[in-house]
From TrEMBL:
GO CC annotations, alphabetized: cytosol
Keyword Ion transport: no
Name of this protein: Gamma-glutamylaminecyclotransferase
Domain of life of the organism encoding this protein: Eukaryota
Length: 156
């Protein structure tokens, strides 16, 4: 199992969460909530109002999200879903555990108790330069105050 940190439309209550609970795509087990140890710019960009974490460590905010354990099938699905490696790149990032529900081996429990885990995160280093000038968010909600409604894939 691999650990994945999601910060956008794949979180609970967001438009693409349905994929995280679709066992036909693989297994994803919610482990807890966290935030990036380093600051990153989280922007909402493009004509479909997609959330992107720009891979610019040290700029922006500690981005909030959810930690999942996923099997190889789900990881492969997420790579395809996220357009990896063209649109997003899957990289390891340090995630601070805010609230832990995960149950697992002693190594997992110990890592959670220490408060920091390494998780795969879909961020991007391939973005138009003007995105750096967009507003930065510390948390994403598709129906947030930003007024930038996410456009579902089936509606594009």
């Amino acid at each position: 199992m691999a650990r994945v940190f999601v910060y956008g439309t794949l979180k609970k209550g967001q438009p693409n969460y349905k994929y995280m609970i679709n066992t036909a795509k693989g297994l994803a087990k919610f482990q807890g909530r966290g935030r990036t140890v380093e600051k990153y710019p989280l922007v909402i960009a493009g004509k479909y109002n997609i959330p992107y974490m720009l891979n610019i460590p040290g700029t922006g905010h500690h981005v909030a999200g959810e930690i999942y354990s996923v099997d190889d099938q789900m990881l492969q699905f997420l790579d395809e879903f996220e357009g990896c490696p063209d649109m997003y790149q899957r990289t390891l990032m340090r995630i601070e555990v805010v609230e832990w529900e995960g149950k697992g081996g002693t190594g997992e429990v110990r890592a959670a108790a220490e408060g920091v885990l390494e998780c795969f995160v879909y961020s991007t280093a391939t973005y138009p330069p003007e995105w750096v000038g967009l507003p930065y968010y510390d948390s994403y909600d598709s129906s947030g105050k930003h007024g930038l409604s996410y456009v579902l894939r089936e509606s594009r």
